[in-house]
Amino acid sequence: xxxxxxxxxxxxxxxxxxxxxxxxxxxxxxxxxxxxxxxxxxxxxxxxxxxxxxxxxxxxxxxxxxxxxxxxxxxxxxxxxxxxxxxxxxxxxxxxxxxxxxxxxxxxxxxxxxxxxxxxxxxxxxxxxxxxxxxxxxxxxxxxxxxxxxxxxxxxxxxxxxxxxxxxxxxxxxxxxxxxxxxxxxxxxxxxxxxxxxxxxxxxxxxxxxxxxxxxxxxxxxxxxxxxxxxxxxxxxxxxxxxxxxxxxxxxxxxxxxxxxxxxxxxxxxxxxxxxxxxxxxxxxxxxxxxxxxxxxxxxxxxxxxxxxxxxxxxxxxxxxxxxxxxxxxxxxxxxxxxxxxxxxxxxxxxxxxxxxxxxxxxxxxxxxxxxxxxxxxxxxxxxxxxxxxxxxxxxxxxxxxxxxxxxxxxxxxx
Length: 415
Prior knowledge:
Layout: E1 6-10, H1 14-26, E2 30-34, H2 37-46, E3 51-55, E4 57-58, E5 61-62, H3 63-72, E6 80-85, H4 91-99, E7 104-107, H5 112-207, H6 216-239, E8 248-250, H7 252-267, E9 271-276, E10 284-286, H8 288-304, E11 310-320, E12 337-345, H9 352-355, H10 375-385, E13 389-394, E14 400-407
Parallel strand pairs: 1-2, 1-3, 3-6, 6-7, 9-11
Antiparallel strand pairs: 4-5, 8-10, 11-12, 12-14, 13-14
């Protein structure tokens, strides 16, 4: 079906308007008419034509002003405008019309064939410009779509790289811990043998009547040192998971009440202790001795972070799986609830670099000889052995919070 371009002819001379309309209609245009500036603007805004043939001199304004207003309106700015005149024929008038946005400035008299040819040439140009605009819009759409695809692909790639780096870091860490564990287990075994000899012989000497009483304090110090060494080997075995794991149902609230006096003694008089325990706390499946070790180690760690005194608050709570977010390494896929025990102190805190290493074996911020570097590593190993995880929140000078999450066990579960 042949397309007939729409043309608005604007002229206040009725005879000339009819003549132009008839000739342009015969040339294949769908012609609409207007006799004033206001009528022309109203017609263009109501339904923009393909082209406006606009007389320069009109009874209520000028064609130049009408052209300028058509160009200023975004809804009509793409409409082609041709100014035509028999009066404003000077070059200054033509420049003013073109500056106003006219696509052509025609001076009468002009032959009808020439006028039709010039209008058709402008329409061909309009079609090319329209095609270019469409192509530009399509190109812009394709560029935006491709940019979005590349952005999403880059985001996925970054996420994959981060996941791979995290996996590699966990693998390297596990290899380091495994190597350290084998070494520590061997040392603990040999050290236990030596300590057994020391402890047994110390007991024999203290019971021997031939030994002067003056040596009894010295023998007692030897025995206490050996007991401390035995405690260190127990930590090594806990860290390397060589100690036998004997789980049963444990209520953390009851455990904390039992250990309250021992924790307070470990903290010393300068650190106050407060327990904030949730009611109806579900039990966990755990080795009681290992859980006690976790609690005492974290209490001592908090004490060491408060050399000038402070406060430690221990809280328990229960979280549904919709709130608790186990990390990928936590092996508790079927847990629906988690028991959380939190250790909150107002000590010196730590920076991010320290926080990233606190669970490394033999890492310590204490002075040489003041710490083994196994306390938090042992805590981390025990929590992992119980299918849990630890979140640590801390900033320098703002204290530290250790959240330990352990999968809850249904109350009806067998012991």
